[in-house]
């Protein structure tokens, strides 16, 4: 799996094909903020941004599996009241449903669109549960994809969400920085396992403990986001472990 937090700039046209050729991923996941100007773009501008995106990532290549998540730069959600339904609909027109469940072998991806101000109740919870009603999250690898963090919200939110979905991995991309945290369902506490960089070249997470959930913050791959450490994240899933 190849995971990207993406802001569109020219040099990606060189770095992404090289990284993709090296990793040869089964899935490519983009965790939001596809376009810096998504909120203010006209429909014609958005179309041009999409074509530019496709020219780099070859999104229309149906031989490659892609999952594209909306971010606040695309549809709003960073500030209270700035979410615009028309922008969400436009995003769906280009990148498909913003809440969806994908399944391949023993891996399930639950694609979400829960911004900073969403509560896990009523319509939002119903939309999520609709995806898992006929296909429960029972695979060995149950991966939630969301632009915003899940595990640093209120205890009430986290407990209800985890009880419904039973994920073991959450991938998010809002902060621009790399980190890995673990959440203990018994103590209801988070522990930082890695921040900004890994302490070793290969970092393994044991996914067999149902009381522990991991949230990985994927860094930006654009120098324009103002962070020192950039890059792509490659995940290798094997026998109940994530490497």
From TrEMBL:
GO terms for biological process: GPI anchor biosynthetic process. One of its GO terms (molecular function) is hydrolase activity. It is found in: Membrane. It is a multi-pass membrane protein. Pfam families: Metallophos. Its main location: membrane. It comes from the Eukaryota. GO terms for cellular component: endoplasmic reticulum; membrane. InterPro entries: Calcineurin-like_PHP, Metallo-depent_PP-like, PGAP5/Cdc1/Ted1. Residues 9-95 form the Calcineurin-like phosphoesterase domain. This is Calcineurin-like phosphoesterase domain-containing protein. Coiled coil: none annotated. Gene3D superfamilies: 3.60.21.10. SUPFAM superfamilies: Metallo-dependent phosphatases. Keywords: Membrane, Transmembrane, Transmembrane helix. It comes from Rotaria socialis.
